[in-house]
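Subgroup meeting minutes
Present: P.N., E.W., G.H.
Scribe: E.W.

1. P.N. recapped why we're keeping a running log of single-chain structure predictions: easier to compare across weeks, and new members can see raw inputs and outputs side by side.
2. G.H. added today's entry (633 aa).
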Amino acid sequence: MKKTAFLFVSLAVAAAFGRTVSVKSPDGRIAFSVETEGRLSYSLAFNGKTLIAPSAMGFDFKDEPPMADGFTLAGEPKVESGLVEAWKSVVKNRHADGRVEYNRLTLPLREADGARRRMDVTVHVSDDGAAFRYTLYGSERPGERLIVDERTEYRVPETSFAWVGHNQGGGSSGSQESVFVKTPVTDIGADDWCLVPLLVEVDRSNYLAITSANLDNYPGFLAAWRNGAIATRLCASPSEGDAGVKARFDERFDTAWRVVMVADNPGRFVETEMLRALSAPCAIQDTSWIRPGLSAWDHWWSGEVKMDMPTAKEYIDLAAAEGWPYMLVDWQWYGKFNVPEADITKSAPQMDIPALIAYAKERGVRLWLWLYSSDATRNDAFREAFVLYAKWGVAGVKIDFMDRYDREIVNWCRRMAKCAADNRLMLDFHGAYVSDGLERTYPNIMTREAVKGAEYSKFSDDITPEHNVTLAFTRLIAGPMDYTPGAFLNVPRENFRQGSPTVVMNTRAAELAKFVVYESPYMVCCDHPTNILGKVGADFLKEVPAEWDDTRFLGGYPGEWVAIARRSADRWFVGAMGGDDAREVEIDLSSLCIADEGRIWCDSRKVAITTEGGILRVPLAPGGGFVAVFPCK
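Output recorded in log:
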């Protein structure tokens, strides 16, 4: 739904400001300006302070000159105020209803000389940030135009810091699984491939989060530091290489949105609906079969791969006992994988998937099946397989190991989402790029990985309390995150060791908190039944939902601690996690309208937990946490 009021900015007004055209957020705090005279550039201010100084825009092409300067206005700039993008959430990731108010600037441009090529810039500014995209047009010669690179940059103050995660693999291809480290922006390399969302601290009152929205026939981007600014590095397909063509078009074409979230606190970004507001509405007519929920996993986390019927039934029984709707059957259920002879329509000799589905159905549980992406893609095997899975009664599919962010994989993910939807299958994109809001268009995309999650505790020392807290301020900005929490062999950091069965360096209460702090409508609980059933928190795991009517950031700072509240119907769930150091946290619950008494799961029954004037005071052990459930008043 959109409501519109128009304000037209004349050429005379634009010229009076040196051909600078500006648009502000509805609350007036964010101002976005585009300068068309000389080099095309934009800038952004927040509360009157410039956070992004004039920054380059435009493109480099193959076999034609760049488009970056020499523009003139091809028509009157248009500012539309009072716009509202509103929708009813099919899957309630953060809110039951999405609603973003914004103002829009449309700027038609044409080169003053030469080929007089056209390019439009469209800007949306909401109270949560600004987003802009380019519209490009066909050339005078029939055929494709070839984009080699995008010149968009973000010229933040050189005193800024960013939480930097590097793409696994060291290039544009990779799984986007990284630790995020607070780094002076000037220490980011010119050849780095830094993950987005990129959280930037200009100072302790001004924060930015830089990312993309609505990727469609256009590659994702990663970031570097070049010529005094954060630079856009478009991701290339393996066949092209990093110096090759990144995008192709032959007629009017809209790029992805470049998104700059803005706030006075780094935690506010987990509340925003900006990415979904910039994405297309739901493309699925009947969505009644799309149902969020918790899931048991198979034995891989608990030990090594143990793919057999008795073991799978153990985890189905766990899901049934906890009231979870799903159980995930992971790799090797169809035997050999990532080889030409792999067959994703047949069970391995020791497995009988239809029989397992029947066993699960008797217990009120449905199955998800894992696929290696190459096995799904080879000879279009997914098309036959998805029809078969629908006949079997499979709930969803986890597709793994894409490890790319280029235009081809973007389009591939859209094809997968549509084919899955046509067969009433939900999706978990594992080994995938970060969310861009596509889950609004295809709400059967329940979650994505793009995170250094729980599995790394099996073979690395990276999953520290500091890392777990930092994820809530970095990766989680983009949306659903398949971290797979629920590891309950908890040890102090000094006692951690890699291996199986897997232990984790936090407390049991901190692990429970991940089910509230993290966002994933398909929330996979990783551990073995014996570490869950009858143990502390099993009652909490029975009642915690996987979708939410409201989301509130309550406090914290990257690496130190985080507290988030999420509401489901008439109950607020509050989760908090601490970093490596013990601390007492004070959390203001006064805005939640909760009853005076709730239930809490914390690090120790011996600690004193106090509430006064709506302030909850809780001591956290090193790597500690808590969860609480409060009824609404």
